[in-house]
Specification:
The chain contains 15 helices and 8 strands. It has 370 residues and is of the alpha/beta class. The protein has 2 domains: 273 residues, Rossmann fold, CATH 3.40.50.970; 82 residues. Strands 2-1-3-4-6-5-8-7 form an 8-stranded mixed beta sheet, sandwiched between helices. Helix 2 crosses helix 8, helix 5 crosses helix 6 and helix 6 crosses helix 7. The termini are far apart.
């Protein structure tokens, strides 16, 4: 078994990103968290960020397990406290890029107060919220985003409450980047995370992925495949949509896209520096750096990120021709020979020649009647 794990880690494309010694993971078949983590790993690779300067923080719940599986510095915190811990981590070391990866119950339920204040302050972090409409790890209770009328363990006759629209909530609180996708839109999730990692300020990405084990079963909505098909047929792409129009009704249409992307607001640390510099003057230093020193450091880091990103994209371009050539070989008429056989078998004169069977029984019956 040990040899199998070593070989798996050696050949897996996720070996540098995930802690393979902790596989297999606990997520259920059809759960969207796995594809979200894969999109996150791809976005980190494409972003050019130094993995040693990335930290992942999560709370409690199924999505909270992400921090335990990724091969980065990570913190698995208590319920509802992922954002304040991430805030303290960022303030203690502003050079880190901090990502919060958790569920909607953890972030907007018990952690809702921290969510709105981090958005209000424009804290420099990326928050990825897996919205599965339920508390999946603790029995399937109703959450702040469970659609009105949906069944949960605590609302067996349907949810009577009106749910949050998380994009509207964080937009109203002051977030400077807000997007929503579903777990079927993996490439869009990757692009959104990549964009969020490359910018400053509070970025919020909601990923709709109803819990297959509790939410879908309780509401008799099928399995994970049915959920993905529903997403394909019932999502409406609206970039720049007014977040007041992003409510999710029970089995209704889901508005997706990038809703907010602005840079008209100082981050929390920039606001602190501006305020204190008025009092102290040009001698003011934030974390032992003068503004010119910090600008020079950030410029050097951006150049390194650009170089790493260019190297990743170049490697992808080199692999692309090989992948394009592969389908051409597979397109050889190996499988097209099958329809030809069907066409031969379609010669049903052989079956028609068996038609005399009908004549034979009639002849026999006539003789018996005589």
């Amino acid at each position: 078994m040990t040899t199998d794990i070593v070989e798996f880690k050696k050949h897996s494309p996720m070996g540098d990103t995930l802690r393979m010694d902790r596989m297999a993971h606990i997520w259920c078949p059809g759960c969207g968290i796995g594809s979200e983590v894969n999109a996150f790993a791809e976005a980190v690779k494409r972003s050019g960020i130094d993995p040693d300067k990335l930290a992942v923080v999560s709370g409690i719940g199924c999505t909270g397990r992400v921090a335990g599986y990724v091969n980065f510095d990570s913190l698995h915190t208590t319920h509802g406290r992922a954002i304040p811990v991430a805030t303290g981590l960022h303030l203690s070391n502003p050079a880190l890029k901090v990502v919060v990866f958790s569920g909607e119950g953890d972030l907007s339920g018990i952690g809702g107060n921290h969510l709105i204040h981090a958005a209000r302050r424009n804290m420099d972090m990326v928050v990825i919220c897996n919205n599965n409409f339920t508390y999946g790890m603790t029995g399937g209770q109703v959450t702040p985003t469970t659609p009105n009328g949906a069944i949960a363990s605590t609302t067996p006759y349907g949810n009577p409450e009106q749910p949050f629209s998380l994009p509207f909530l964080v937009d109203a609180a002051g977030a400077t980047y807000v997007a929503r996708w579903t777990s079927v839109h993996v490439r869009n999730i990757t692009q959104a995370i990549e964009e969020a990692l490359a910018r400053k300020g509070f970025s919020f990405i909601e990923i709709i992925s109803p819990c297959t084990t509790l939410y879908l079963r309780r509401n008799r909505l099928g399995d994970g495949v049915d959920m993905l098909q529903y997403f394909q047929e019932n999502t409406i792409l609206k970039h720049g949509c007014d977040t007041r129009e992003t409510n999710i009704d029970y089995q209704g249409k889901i508005v997706i896209g990038k809703f907010v992307d602005r840079n008209d607001k100082l981050t929390y640390l920039e606001a602190v520096e501006k305020c204190n510099a008025k009092v102290v003057g040009d001698d003011y230093q934030l974390y032992g750096e003068t503004p010119p020193e910090r600008d020079a450091r950030e410029k050097a880091e951006k150049e390194q990120v650009t170089l790493r990103r260019a190297a990743v994209l170049m490697a992808e371009e080199m692999v692309a021709p090989a992948k394009k050539a592969a389908p051409a070989k597979k397109a050889a008429p190996a499988k097209k020979a099958a329809p030809a056989k069907k066409a031969v078998s379609a010669k049903k004169p052989v079956v028609k020649k068996a038609a005399p069977k009908v004549v034979a029984p009639k002849a026999v019956t006539k003789k018996t009647r005589k």
